[in-house]
Amino acid sequence: MKPIQVGLLGLGTVGGGVYEVLRRNQEEIARRAGRGIEVAMVSRRDTAKAKAVVGDTARVVADPREIVRDPGVEIVVELIGGYELARELVLEAIAHGKHVVTANKALLAVHGTEIFEAAHRHGVMVAFEASVAGGIPIIKALREGLTANRIQWIAGIINGTTNFILSEMRDKGLDFDVVLKEAQRLGYAEADPTFDIEGVDAAHKAAIMSAIAFGIPVQFDKAYVEGITHLAATDIRYAEQLGYRIKLLGITRRREGKGVELRVHPTLVPARRLIANVEGAMNAVVVNGDAVGTTLYYGKGAGSEPTASAVIADLVDVTRLATSDPQHRVPHLAFQPGQMRDVSVLPMEDVVTGYYLRLRVADQAGVLARVATILADAGISIDALLQREADEVGGEGSTQTDLIILTHDAREGAMNAALAELQGLPSVLAPIVRIRKEELA
Length: 441
Ligand SMILES: NC(=O)c1ccc[n+]([C@@H]2O[C@H](COP(=O)([O-])OP(=O)(O)OC[C@H]3O[C@@H](n4cnc5c(N)ncnc54)[C@H](OP(=O)(O)O)[C@@H]3O)[C@@H](O)[C@H]2O)c1
Fold this sequence. Notes:
Layout: E1 4-9, H1 13-24, H2 26-33, E2 37-43, H3 47-54, E3 59-61, H4 64-69, E4 75-78, H5 84-95, E5 99-102, H6 105-122, E6 126-127, H7 138-145, E7 151-157, H8 160-172, H9 176-186, H10 194-197, H11 200-214, E8 224-225, H12 233-241, E9 244-255, E10 259-270, E11 282-289, E12 293-300, H13 304-321, E13 352-362, H14 367-377, E14 382-387, H15 390-394, E15 400-411, H16 412-423, E16 433-437
Parallel strand pairs: 1-2, 1-4, 2-3, 4-5, 5-6, 8-10, 10-16
Antiparallel strand pairs: 7-9, 7-11, 9-10, 11-12, 13-15, 13-16, 14-15
The protein binds NADP nicotinamide-adenine-dinucleotide phosphate.
NADP nicotinamide-adenine-dinucleotide phosphate (NAP) is lined by residues 10-15, 43-46, 64, 79-81, 85, 103-104, 130, 134, 302-303, 307.
């Protein structure tokens, strides 16, 4: 059979990796796919650079629209990134009856519903394994491997840049700003790292996983998003003393009869959990299903060839399934299109989680009792407590100390009210630090 014809939109980090791995492993990949996979066209604004990569093995064009409109191209691989151009190209490819593979989480998080509806209407596939956790086949695991389960929750380290920064802060006891500069120098963080450090990239990926896990639309706009920019080295140290590590987690959880939680924020995780020990730029996702229990997926979340690995897995899937009846393919979002549920994402006020609190207080009698009473009145119970000696915190003769509290699970709304009251106490001397905590058992 003639090799299936592929067009690559973009030949940067991921596009270059896809071209190289397809070339290197072409025989093995064809044996798996049942036919060859051939890159027929590639696009890059700088066509000379593209030609230097592909030589005369593929047609090189500057305008990606040429690929989308070319009748010979059967699968379009979108590796340009961003929102508007990518959306336009993907929708046009679908309208021309082409299957699409993309690594673009931002696109799917924001325009996913429109794109999947268009794909369903035109009977084509949109595959997106590389959009979440790079080389880790988490989409496949959720959509196929775990299909017997009612997924209960997912928690993932799904942004390598922030995990690298947090690992460095813990290892070297340095503050966020210092480590960010170092990460930029080493190429672990972009010149404009906003999407990573503010948690937006992780929220894109969490929203996609949430849709697949629960059979609901992609609802990035409802996600609670908090990054790591305000995290202090002090809190990482105190968390460590209490047996926890702080990770930026993307979390989605089923709350029976109520809705789902969808949130990204720094989170205390027990140090003995495997995910707490995922260091540097690595990614990991923990999925809990009612039948299988807790499972863990670990690997490189970015990079040229790890991401290409995921893109090519999609290419093989699409090649295998291209001739099958659309009704019998694996559905894009794991659930059949007519079986999606309109389950709402809960407001942050209704999220239930544990908390780490750090209060800078006056070193005097009765403060702890007053704090404990306010928490108890709000229905929040204390799990562990750490009180530093004033001398340790503020030096000799200091009249201030830190009170560190871990709580059992509580509703965010109750915690907000208690924090407002605590913050008003004259003996509380600085803004209270609050970091959420998950046991992930
Ligand atoms: N890098 C990773 O490790 C990784 C991991 C997972 C997912 N992803 C996703 O994969 C996608 C691609 O990322 P990347 O890192 O490969 O990006 P990249 O290295 O910047 O490559 C982007 C490619 O698109 C082309 N391009 C950019 N703007 C264009 C425009 N307006 N018109 C035509 N072509 C344009 C660029 O070529 P010219 O500038 O020469 O035109 C380049 O070839 C993104 O959605 C990203 O989120 C990346």
